[in-house]
From TrEMBL, chain A:
EC number: 1.5.3.24
Intracellular or extracellular location(s): Cytoplasm
Matches recorded under PROSITE patterns: RHODANESE_3
Gene3D superfamilies in the cross-refs: D-Amino Acid Oxidase, subunit A, domain 2, FAD/NAD(P)-binding domain
Name the record gives this protein: Sarcosine oxidase subunit beta
Main location: cytoplasm
UniProt GO cellular component terms: cytoplasm
GO molecular function list: nucleotide binding; sarcosine oxidase activity
Record domain Rhodanese: where: 35-79
Lineage: Bacteria, Pseudomonadati, Pseudomonadota, Gammaproteobacteria, Oceanospirillales
Domain of life from the UniProt record: Bacteria
From TrEMBL, chain B:
GO BP terms, alphabetized: tetrahydrofolate metabolic process
InterPro entries with a match to the protein in the record: SoxD, SoxD_sf
Top-level taxon in the UniProt lineage: Bacteria
Transmembrane stretches, start-end: none
Pfam family name, one: SoxD
Name listed for the protein in its UniProt record: Heterotetrameric sarcosine oxidase delta subunit
Protein species of origin: Kushneria sinocarnis
Species classification: Bacteria, Pseudomonadati, Pseudomonadota, Gammaproteobacteria, Oceanospirillales
GO molecular function: sarcosine oxidase activity
Region (Disordered): 89-111
């Protein structure tokens, strides 16, 4: 694999950028792999990379029905943070955040991870109490987290309406300085390129249509390009996970909902951090190009159409304009939706299944981008050893029968 | 934006007058004491989450009436709305298609 560097950029400039190598091969599927990963989003590709690098398992295929990273990975608002309430979540998301911090070097690909901080705004007294509690919990778990009062917020985000008579008064906020945003496509492409360089086969435009199951044990998958056999199979298909589970003969505690986002025309810098408001289901940041990136809430009903309903967009824009009156005349450029796999406790499922050798990693819902490196890292371990990584143990789908939920709903300003 | 027909008043109203309440026809499990953890968990948390023809319950907010909707979750086409206690006409065929239970030929697909 060609190494990317500043020097390389200059060298390629001399040949008018016509000599760049392809980032990955386009291989024909083998008949058998040690591990098959279904779903070529960020999580699936990261899993492949850590399987190869950490565990030396390189006879691996990632099977993707569309193009790499074209699912939620390419549709999200890229907020990365680890300030969740519960210990289990803190371990999981902080594990990911630590990996984010070295990721560009690790995979030799600039994922533009920008630690510009994330604010979770509190609008009511109950919000304030919950936020303080969460900040304390974060600190006990060794996660950087501060409580800011309204003045602190105003100082950090001058554009926000912090007056007392605001429609959504700002009473305070939590602030995690190490949180931020990253470039979503780069994450998928970087992991893909790194995994490919270790021999992982990336099979695009190949849909998994069924599982080969013999005596309760998975033996491979059926795809639109024929049968492919494997020792173990990991399914990382986000919004499509219930359909995949049904193919394998079981049900998941997951519902798929459309979630939307939109971006504005490019502006000069106005917002240099990320602002999230759980109360109004809106969050906003500004990309390096200058577009405002705005995320909304989910539609209340099950939907697989990768587009959301209009009232949700109207609602989020109303809220953003109330919070940032100076943005009221900004024009919006594009709007889109993804299908997110929500669980009853707003925590993911990283789990063994009733089928031996078949593992699921799903249920990340509206907030799995931030977990991409951590999810891939512990899922690779799980696939390599055949049992859940210690960080993944609380996230078994068994918890919906035992009642040991990791109930981050509302607890952790959970929007994203 | 959906226009949904309330099966009680037969009037169409926009989506925002309604609240989606999840999968339809979920039977409440018997007492948690006599039910296994497995059955109780299934009742509380596990859903069909169909890609295709989906039966779901909605609430008309102004009149506080619950009813059911058969909707295709990819196209959002609403095939029918029906009152509580009634049975739906359209069923999922398990592969994203529709079965019309009142068609002459049972296996005929309408969409
Ligand atoms: C609008 C929006 C905003 C969001 N904002 C944030 C945010 O700010 N921060 C955050 O942390 N998270 C956010 N999320 C959530 C985040 O995007 C997801 O949790 C995360 O990207 C999931 O990654 P993934 O790799 O599991 O899924 P995906 O990227 O969706 O990958 C799954 C892949 O599986 C493939 N697949 C499905 N079925 C099959 C099959 N049968 N055969 C082969 N391949 C198949 C799909 O084509 C897809 O490419 C947001 C999501 C949306 C939609």
């Amino acid at each position: 694999m060609e190494r990317y560097s500043g020097f390389g950029l200059v060298r390629h400039a001399l040949s008018h950028h016509e000599q760049w190598q392809r980032m990955w091969r386009n291989p024909t599927p083998k008949r058998h792999y040690d591990v098959i990963i279904v779903g070529g989003g960020g999580h699936g590709l990261a899993t492949a990379w850590y399987l190869a690098r950490e565990h030396g398992v390189t006879n691996v295929a990632v099977i993707e029905k569309g193009w790499l990273g074209g699912g939620n990975t390419a549709r999200n608002t890229t907020i990365v943070r680890s300030n969740y309430l519960f210990d289990e979540s803190a371990r999981l998301y902080e594990h990911a955040l630590k990996l984010w911090e070295g990721l560009s070097q690790d995979i030799n690909y600039n994922v533009m991870f920008s630690q510009r901080g994330v604010l979770n705004v509190a609008h009511t007294m109950q919000d304030v109490r919950d936020t303080r509690r969460r900040v304390n919990a974060n600190r006990l778990n060794g996660i950087d987290s501060d409580y800011l009062d309204a003045d602190g917020v105003k100082h950090l985000v001058p554009a926000m309406d912090c007056l007392e008579n605001a429609r959504y008064p700002v009473l305070g906020a939590s602030f995690q300085p190490r949180a931020g945003v990253a470039r979503h496509d780069a994450v998928a492409w970087g992991y893909a390129r790194a995994a490919d360089s270790r021999g992982v086969d990336l099979l695009q435009n190949t849909e998994v249509t069924g599982f080969l199951i013999e005596n309760g044990e998975v033996k491979g998958v059926e795809t639109t390009s024929g049968e492919i056999r494997a020792g173990r199979v990991g399914v990382v298909t986000a919004g499509n996970s219930s359909t995949m589970a049904r193919m394998a003969g079981f049900n998941l505690p997951v519902e798929s909902h459309p979630l939307q986002a939109l971006v504005s025309e490019p502006l000069k810098p106005v917002i240099d951090t990320v602002i999230m408001s759980n109360q109004v289901h809106g969050y906003i940041s500004q990309s390096d190009k200058g577009d405002l990136v705005i995320g909304a809430g989910v539609d209340g009903y099950v939907g697989y159409g990768q587009r959301g309903s209009y009232p949700i967009i109207e609602h989020v824009i109303q809220a953003i304009v109330e919070m940032f009156p100076s943005l009221s005349r900004v024009r919006m450029n594009r709007q889109w939706g993804g299908v997110v796999d929500t669980t009853p406790d707003a925590s993911p499922i990283i789990s063994t299944t009733p089928v031996k050798g078949l593992f699921f990693n799903c249920g990340w819902g509206t907030g799995g981008f931030k977990a991409t490196p951590g999810s891939g890292h512990i899922f690779a371990w799980t696939l390599a050893k055949g049992r859940p990584h210690p960080i993944a143990e609380p996230y078994s789908m068994q918890r919906f029968h035992t009642g040991a939920l990791v109930d981050e709903h509302g607890a952790a300003a959970v929007a994203h | 934006m959906f226009y949904i027909r309330c099966p009680y008043t037969n009037e169409y109203h926009s989506e925002e007058e309604f609240k989606p309440c999840g999968q339809a026809q979920i039977r409440r499990a018997d007492s948690p004491v006599s039910t296994s953890d497995e059955q109780w968990g299934d009742y509380l948390f596990f859903r069909d989450n169909i890609r295709g023809v989906h039966h779901e319950m909605w609430l008309h907010l102004p009149t506080r009436r619950y009813f059911n909707v058969t909707r295709h979750t990819v196209t959002n086409e609403i095939l029918e709305t029906w009152r509580m206690g009634e049975e739906p006409r359209y069923q999922s065929d398990g592969r994203g298609g529709v079965i019309d239970t009142r068609a002459d030929n049972d296996s005929e697909e309408v969409a």
